[in-house]
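User: Hi! I have a protein structure encoded as tokens and I'd like to know what sequence might fold into it. I'm fairly new to this, so please keep things simple.
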């Protein structure tokens, strides 16, 4: 009986250490997806020299639907004023990590995954 009680008490630890690598892999995949989205969107925006509000909303909706988040949990910030050639434009995307072994609320220990990148504008204004 004693060994059964000890096993029951240690079972959450075994599950935690078995589940943690899976959580890390999912968060890494989400991080790589955000990095790809930021790089692709910034490459396209370099030609115009800015992100329109429609562009930012489309990126936000696509990331939310691809990763299964509500749209309001995906934070996006980009350069919305037109920049001339040689000036930096930036894009930042953030999502909360929703995978945790113990999903307790309030979720004070959840971190955000953020990817940010900047590039030089190639827009020539006349």
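Assistant: Happy to help. Inverse folding works backwards from shape to sequence: for each of the 126 positions I chose a residue that suits the local structure. Here it is:
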């Amino acid at each position: 009986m004693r060994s059964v009680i000890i096993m029951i008490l240690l079972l959450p630890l075994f599950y935690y250490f078995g589940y943690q690598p899976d959580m890390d892999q999912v968060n890494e995949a989400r991080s790589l997806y955000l990095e790809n989205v930021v790089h692709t969107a910034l490459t396209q925006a370099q030609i115009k020299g800015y992100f329109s509000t429609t562009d930012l909303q489309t990126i936000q909706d696509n990331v939310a639907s691809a990763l299964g988040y509500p749209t309001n949990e995906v934070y996006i910030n980009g350069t919305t004023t037109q920049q001339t050639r040689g000036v930096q434009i930036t894009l930042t995307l953030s999502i909360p990590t929703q995978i945790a072994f113990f999903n307790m609320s309030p979720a004070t220990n959840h971190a955000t995954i953020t990817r940010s990148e900047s590039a030089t504008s190639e827009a020539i204004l006349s």
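A useful reference point when you look it over: Residues 2 and 88 are 66 Å apart (CA to CA). Feel free to ask if any position seems puzzling.
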